[in-house]
Amino acid sequence: MRERHVVIVGAGFGGLAAARALKGARDVQVTVVDRENHHLFQPLLYQVATASLPPQAIASPIRSSFRRQRNARVVLGEAAEVDREQRILTLRDGSTLRYDYLVVAAGAKTNYFGKWAEWGDHALGVKDLSDAIRIRERILLAFEAAEREEDPEVRARLLTFIAIGAGPTGVEMAGAISELGRQVLAKDYRRIAPNDIQVLLLERGDRVLSPFDPELSARALEHLEALGVTARFGCSVTDVDAEGVTYTNRKGEVVKVHAAVTCWATGVQPVSFAAKIGAATHRGKIVVDQHCALPSDRHVYAIGDIAHFVPTGEERGLPGLAPVAMQQGAHVAKAIASDVAGKSRPTFRYVDKGIMATVGRSAAVVEVGNFRAWGHFAWLTWCFVHVMLLIGFANRVLVMLAWTWSYVTMKRGARIITSGHDAAHENQDLDPRPRPMSESQ
What we know:
The chain is an alpha/beta fold and 441 residues long. The protein has helices at residues 13-21, 45-49, 62-65, 116-119, 129-148, 152-158, 168-188, 214-226, 322-340, 376-389, 393-409, 421-427; strands spanning 4-9, 28-34, 38-40, 59-61, 72-76, 79-83, 88-91, 96-98, 101-104, 108-110, 123-125, 160-164, 198-203, 229-233, 236-241, 244-248, 254-258, 261-264, 268-270, 281-282, 285-287, 293-294, 297-302, 307-308, 355-358, 364-368, 371-375.
C-alpha cells in the first residue's frame, strides 16, 4: 500500500495531539511544520509575564516530543500558501511539501479589532513568549522608575497597570500583577508601599468571567477586589497610547487613565494563514464539517482556534480551548487512519471537560457541568490539571518547584530584565517626565 504523507501546520495543543495519535498508524508519514522550534503552554503565559515562572518552564522543544516517533519529522518554517488542487504546501522560504492530508492547526493571534497598527506597541497581548517577556520587563522597569521618581503624579502613573478584558486571561493577569506588586515587589523597594500600586481591570460587559456561572463570577470578583484589583464594567476602549487608556463609560463619559503598562486580553482571532486555504470562513475561522474537514476538500482538516466547528443541533461553534483542540487532533488522526484503511470516517463529538480560571496565588473557579467550585480547593484542582497538561517531565517538575517556592516564600524567582534600560525606555515611554497622572474626562 502506498505511504500517505500527513502535513500538520502548527505544533500547539491540536497539532501535537494529531501527530502523536498517528504514531502507530500504518503506511503514514507525518511532517509537523511550525515557525517556532518549541511548543508553548499558553495557559501559563501570564505567570511568565508576572515573574512566577521562567520562560523555559512552559516551552518544550518540538523535536524532543517526536524523538521516539519514527514516522514523524519536524520542519522549522512558516506556512505561506496552499495549492489544494496539487496538494502542495508552500513555506515562507519558498520550499514546498506535498501532502496527502493537510491538518491546519496554526492557532490564533491577539485580536486588536483593526487597531493593531495604532495600539499594538502599547496594549500588549498575552499570546506568545515575547509578549510575556515584554510585559514582565515593562512592569519591572516601571517599578525601577517609580523608586527614583520624586513627582507624586508621575509615580502614580508608573505604578498603575491596566488589563483590558475580564475573561480568564484578563482576570489572571490582573490578579497576578496585583500580587506581584503588592506582595512581592513592594517589599523590595524602599519607597514603594503596597497601596501605591493600582491595578485596573476594564470590561465592556457587566461581570468578570462571563462564560462562567454568575455565582462563580461574583466569587472571582470578590477575590480580585481582596487582591487590590479595581474592576470597571461597561467600558468601551477608544484609544490606547504610551500614556494609558481612553474609554467611554456607561454614562457616555470619556475617561483617560494614565498607566505604565497595559495588557490586552479581549480575545483572539485566527492567524492570517486561515485566509490562504481558499475555503469558507466564519469570522476568520475555517468552516469545517462534522469530521473536522473542509466540506469541499476531504484531504484538508482544520482544528483548534483556527477552525469553526458547530456540533450537530447547536447554533454556536466550539470555543477556542485547549481541550477542544486536543480532542479534535486525536479525532483527525483516527479519521485519517480510517481513510487509509478504507473505512468510513467517524464523526467528531466533543466531550466538555469544563472551564477553570485562577484568581491569584491560592484561589480559582472551576465549572464542570453542574459541578462548581471556588477558592483553595478549586486552585489545587487547577494546579493539578495544568501540571498534567504540560509537555515533558522536566517542565512539570520545574513548574511545581517554582509554584512551591513562590507559595511558601512569597517570592518570585524570574524577575529578570534582559532588554536593557535604554531600549525599554525607547519602546515604552517610562521616562519619568512630569505629566498629569490623574483620571480626566
